[in-house]
Amino acid sequence: MPQNIVFTPLADELAAKAREIADKLVRPLAAKYDKAQEYNWEAAKAVAKAGLFRTFVPKEYGGHGAGVLALARVTEELAKADSGFGVAFAVNALGSFPILVGGTEAQKKKWLPSIAAGEKFVAFCLSEKFAGSDAGGLSVTAVEDGDDYVICGEKKWTTNGGVADIYSVFCVTDPTSKSRRISAIVVEKGTPGFTVKKVEDKMGIRCVPVVETHFDHVRVPKSNLIGERPGMGFKHAMMTLDLARPGVAAQAVGAAQGALDLANVYAQRRQQFGVPISNHQMVQQMLADMAMKTEAARWLVYAAAAAADSQAANVGQRAAMAKCFATDVAMDVATDAVQIFGGYGYMEDYPIAKFFRDAKILQIYEGTNQIQRIVIARSLIRDANDLGHLDEYIPRETQKTYQEDGAVKQA
Ligand SMILES: Cc1cc2nc3c(=O)[nH]c(=O)nc-3n(C[C@H](O)[C@H](O)[C@H](O)COP(=O)(O)OP(=O)(O)OC[C@H]3O[C@@H](n4cnc5c(N)ncnc54)[C@H](O)[C@@H]3O)c2cc1C
After folding, report:
1. Which residues are marked as active site?
2. What is the reported pLDDT for 400?
């Protein structure tokens, strides 16, 4: 069913504030922080001051309670100026969602208000060296010891590592269980034995650190276990990704729009054969396709975000569709934008090359686009069970059922 998409005045206001900060403090500084691989603290502080970290946090914990759709719009505005800063903002929601979806009342009261205020930044530690797409295959352990858990092992590719104060860490708490193997545990910056190592030298999104997080007998109180009981971590991770993927998709829409806007302006300014290149029909075709795909992605993202806000039944499928489609669009649009810039597009002197470098990661993190397609297909296959009324239009001779003794019975 199509989703009702409602823009509240609050969401409009938050998106407008994000645009203002993006224009003043993100776009003009993007190249500098990309080159230096440094975090844009000026912009992050302005985002905190403008109350934008409050967007996704419920009102009772100091937030605006504006939901995933408003979060998507804010993220889009920031990513339009710099995809790296877009993720630097959005990852705070990714890291906070395990607490939001699985935390106890006491845990929400403890951590969410400072996240909402932008006083504390957050990171999400799921991936490991040997567990990427196969997120169930984690090896970082958390062993009970009196009133504490003791965490050992390494996480790979923690975005915001070092900047963040609060880390949602997915650990194996019951190696013998298949369904209740994993739990999410909060580890705070400064806890003895917890260190950030190997700040990665990345192709794109270079203003936000991505690191290894190491846990050497890190002792945290059992009250840091997210939720009432251990074993809920995998479920919390999946629920988190359903809420966070519209955010990655929104980064992609912002990035696509940012690249399109630059290419559009350049196509009016650059002259070849005595006319602006935008007069050439093949350039027009590229611009038209870029605009069409970006707009289609935008509304798919808004629909997925609205589905998350209304807790629709098929949130996972919609989030995966939005993530996969929008991030493929961002890569396509960034590629065509470089093409429109010609040789200048290939040079690091201008931001368009950065849009291209930044786009690639969108197809990889928070579940590769192959994994998104698996999620979508599995959900479609489940949906087929509700389409029994179409059976009469399916060739009968193709329909087999199996009897209890294994013999095939023609329908
Ligand atoms: C810059 C960056 C930031 C990141 N930030 C975070 C973060 O903050 N927190 C975090 O927890 N993780 C983070 N990640 C990790 C990211 O989510 C993983 O890289 C991603 O899930 C893919 O895992 P992998 O790299 O191990 O690839 P693999 O899982 O090894 O996949 C390699 C290739 O095989 C394909 N593949 C794997 N399994 C299947 C299958 N069943 N069917 C079809 N194809 C398959 C994949 O699609 C991919 O093309 C980040 C990664 C990067 C690079």
Report:
1. 366
2. 72
171 Cα to the center of ligand 1, angstroms: 18
Q: Whose CA is nearest to atom 35 of ligand 1?
A: 370
Cα of 175 vs centre of ligand 1, distance in Å, is 23
What's the gap in Å between 387 CA and the centre of ligand 1? 33
Q: Could you tell me the residue ranges of all domains in the chain?
A: 9-121, 123-231, 235-384
The yes/no answer on whether domain 235-384 falls in CATH 1.20.140.10 is: yes
Q: Does domain 123-231 have CATH number 2.40.50.140?
A: no
**Closest atom of ligand 1 relative to the 205 alpha carbon:** 1
- Computed over every residue of the chain, the mean pLDDT equals 96
Q: Does domain 9-121 have CATH number 2.60.120.10?
A: no
Identify the CA nearest to 155 among candidates 210, 234, 237, 201: 210
Ligand 1 atom, smallest distance to 91 CA = 8
Q: What's the whole-number mean pLDDT along residues 69-76?
A: 98
| Residue 39, ligand 1, Cβ within 6 A | no
Q: What angle do CA 21, 24, 28 make, to 5 degrees?
A: 120
Q: Is the pTM of this model over 0.85?
A: yes
